[in-house]
Amino acid sequence: MDRNFARALSLVLTSEGGWSDNPADPGGATMKGVTLANFRRYVKADATKADLRAISDDQVATVYRRFYWDAVAGAQLPGGIDYALFDFAVNSGPGRAAKYLQGVLGVVQDGRIGPATLAAVRAKPAGVVIDALCDARLAFLKKLSTWPSFGRGWSARVASVRRQALLMSAAPSATEGSASPGPASPDDVPLAATPAGAGSPAAGEAPAVPHKSASPAKVACVLALIALALGSLTAWTAHLPCNLFGVFCQ
Prior knowledge:
This protein is mainly α. The chain has helices at residues 5-16, 36-42, 49-53, 57-69, 81-92, 94-105, 115-122, 126-142, 147-170, 216-238, 240-245, and strands at 19-20, 30-31, 34-35.
């Protein structure tokens, strides 16, 4: 998903390194993986190699997003697959990367990530797609005439991409990133199981008022009333003969 662009770009730049102008590299002069041709296309039409070497971080992000990430529909791909395909696109071109993904998925290889490709990629486990895509990518690289010169580095890069992409595929998605519920409050403690409807008020009835423990003041009041009643009963009992026989007791 698009939330992975910054992380994916950071990983790609680690692999791309800094300035390079190796005659054996078909991409020509590059800075942080940005070729002079793409720098001229997206940033400065008449840029020189000196301009390319001075490219800013924002300019780097602009080129990578527009030329690679958007070209392979990175924002619409599942986590991990987005990075694996993005890095493939940076290394070997967006069209080729898209075709290899489509080959892995068994859909038409037209080099365009459309609804059919997206539906197919979402129907498979991300880890399976990542492994198959990295295997296919490595097989392609081994067939290139430049493999003797760059094979060792490419092999290490694909291994790193596979590892990081699998980690990203296992991470929670944005929709699952909400805060986890905290400790249950007293109101969250479940009551003992009762038959369905046994504890619910009937329609039109007011819900029962929950029982509350008596306060200390109420307890004291009740005990005082009991003591007063006992005292009155004792006094009446002492004068019982007088009351019964009409004799005035002094």
